[in-house]
User: Fold this.
Amino acid sequence: MIALNYDIAQFTPKIGGYMVGPATALENFSLQVKAQDFKRRISGLLYPTNGDEIGEKLSKNGKYVVSRKIDGEFSLLCFDEGKALTVNPGGTVRAGLPCIAEAAETLRASGVRSALIACELFHRKRRDGRERVHDAIRVIRNPRDENELNDISLAPFAILELDGSLLTDWGAGLEKLAKIFENGSLVKSVEFERVESNGDVIRLYDKWVLDENSEGLVVWGDQGGWKIKPTHTFDTAVIGFSESVEDRKGMLHDLLVGVKRPDETYHILTRVGGGFSEKQRRDLFGELKESVAPSNYTEVNSDHVAYEMVRPKYVIEMKCLDIISEKARGGEINRMVIDWQPDDARWVACRRLPFVSIISPQFVRLREDKRASLADIHIRQIDSIVPVPDVDLKVEDIQLPKSEIVERIVYAKQQGDKKMVRKFMLWKTNKEASREYLPFIVYYTDFSSGRAEPIARNILPANTVEQANTMFAEMIEKNVKKGWERVV
Assistant:
């Protein structure tokens, strides 16, 4: 038994019987955790590579299970005693979609009592030869009519649980799903084949990805798993650089790069540390040292060395294996937007906005024929592959509501000539609609004039006022003992 009871009052009706709610409305809150854990685990097991490396990375005589990768929203299909819904890692619950209803009926007719099945929720009407996740997201967030909901399908690709039993064999799971959903209309398991050589994997890559424009392949074998997709290339502006350490001092460690938003601000994209020759590392480091510019924004590299920011005059071509639009456990990936102010020749931080994560970025070449203009380094290079939320918004037009203090309490204590102060604050951000902030913040500062580091801080976010009040009270109880006097 999985238990799919939920508080319907927390759900928002969309169209027809389709409604959306938070995972907190579920009686069985572990369903979101299972969705998160599965996605994180699978992401960790699949090695990203591209089609050109299949012959190198995969054994010639290996046995593999190869499936077609679907470009959709990862969702965990939860079924129990005839009822079904989906939960994604970000905590969005969907019920009443026609494809979910069909999945429930098919599972019931197959004699299944309960199941947890990993699926892609995708848009059936293909653009440019294949489905696109942003088409699915547009419909499931704001469907125009009931007919549009029939364009949304489910593609099951893995069984987590079936009637209380765990199924760990990937190939056996695909075969079981193919049999259950073989006559489906809105629900069809992903296409797959069992093959016995890397040559067969290349054949399927050529057929499914190159000829039919699918997103990629998922390949499982005795040696591990691979996510195989075409390589993406795009042009980016060099925003900053860091120096190598120890015996490689005086050489480039990596670059901080970004692309331009329509309002001419720069959205930081990623760090690029691979693909350079030794000569390029020496030459680029010398050139970039001559272009250092002041900035009120600081970012550090993997060695915790701060990037030196530079004037936006250099453009590089880079490539990557994959572009990810959300965290493994769900939720947006927020990256800083900065503005180059030519009159002052300096960088100014604006704010963090939703963007993407780049997998295996590599330097290709310096583009001396291009400059850091909107035409040459437009964010649409990324948005055309993976949708970027709010891509057309002007950063200066994004006005966030002011926070409001809910409670503020201060305690003081004197020990000889040493004064100690402990301040507790609880505030409502009023910014949860921006998706970057949680509704409440509990904040604690501890000042002691006798310590080497006199100020210590602790910040805890909270989703509800009840949770925030509990955390606030517990923080005071833990940190205020005998001898402290309340002063505010």
Notes: The first strand starts at residue 12 and ends at 13.
